[in-house]
Amino acid sequence: MKEPILRFAPSPNGRLHLGHALSALVTWQAAEIFGGTTLLRIEDIDITRCKPEFTEAIFEDLNWLGLSWPEPVLIQSERFEIYAEAANRLRQRDLIYPCYCSRSDIASKAEDTDPDGAPIYPRTCKHLSNQERIERLERGDPVQFRLHTDRAVEEAGMLTFTVIGPTLSDRPQIRYARPQRWGDVVLQRKDIGTSYHLSVVVDDAAQNVTHITRGRDMEAATDIHVLLQMLLGFSTPIYHFHRLLLGDDGQKLAKSKNSKTLADLRSEGWTADDVRRAVGF
After folding, report:
1. C-alpha–C-alpha distance, residues 222 and 161, integer Å
2. Which residues form the Glutamyl/glutaminyl-tRNA synthetase class Ib catalytic domain (predicted)?
3. Same domain membership, residue 224 and residue 100
């Protein structure tokens, strides 16, 4: 059997907060239970928001929590060519297509929403002729590339994945993936030429990740990842979806809501043990 490999993959677009501490501690705990290793990955494909100082802060905060990881750390912003190669493999099989629609275009025509509540793409550009696609590409119109989900599902067939939960000691269960409920998701963004869905699947395979722990808010997105794993010939890891920490407003902690950071708590006199107790460890 393969040695269990897990990963903790924060984005350096702000300082870590208690929600990140919970996710990290769950991941390292899972590695201990399964007799494996946790890798650290820096998911910084959003080059407009991610900053080197936040990457250094991630190292600082995790070290403060008493966590360690093997070197070298995988940095996603160094791997755009690799993500492009994966997208080209799908393009050669006619599984992705160019889209020129803006967010306002999509919002005005969408008839349904995805599991995250965002408008599902109405597939406007799927019906462009080859000539129109070539002309717009040659003209240099801003373009993103979307997954032809129906065609991809037809090629992949029935999709299942294994989940351990709700606790790490529970017996594994088989679930069915339902990627159609997401519509034709973006795999290559206009600004960076990749997406979270594509890069995370490629990197999990590159790092031989066997088990993935993630918050329950990411449970539905696993549908798309399982589909991409099948299309690209990758193994599907075992998943565990952990609880979320909620703020006073009943919503999950988030950088965008200026949730109090680990650095803030440290400056207030908190210890690493205080953080562990606060998140239930």
Report:
1. 9
2. 7-265
3. yes
The answer to whether residues 132 and 181 belong to one domain is yes
The model scores a pTM over 0.85: yes
Average pLDDT over residues 214-236: 97
**For range 197-214, the mean pLDDT:** 98
Q: Is the same domain home to 98 and 223?
A: yes
**169 three-class SS:** coil
Tell me how far apart the terminal alpha carbons of the chain are, to the nearest angstrom: 29
- AA letter at 110: A
Give the pLDDT confidence score for residue 246 in this predicted structure.
84
Q: Could you give the C-alpha distances from 256 to 16, 44, 131, 225, 251, in angstroms and in order?
A: 12, 16, 42, 25, 12
Closest CA to 266 of 62, 13, 67: 62
Q: Does 226 lie in the same domain as 108?
A: yes
- Please check whether residue 72 lies inside any domain of the structure: yes
Give the CATH number of the domain where residue 266 resides.
Answer: 3.40.50.620
Q: Nearest CA to 204 among 192, 191, 213? A: 213
Q: Show Cβ contacts of residue 194 under 8 Å, excluding neighbours closer than 6 positions.
A: 45, 80, 83, 84, 87, 187, 188
CA–CA separation, 57 and 101 (whole Å)? 37
% residues pLDDT > 90 (the chain): 91
Q: Tell me the sheet residues that pair with 75.
A: 42
**Residues above pLDDT 70, as percent of the chain:** 98
What is the distance between the alpha carbons of residues 19 and 24, in angstroms, rounded to a whole number? 9
DSSP helix/strand/coil, 187: strand
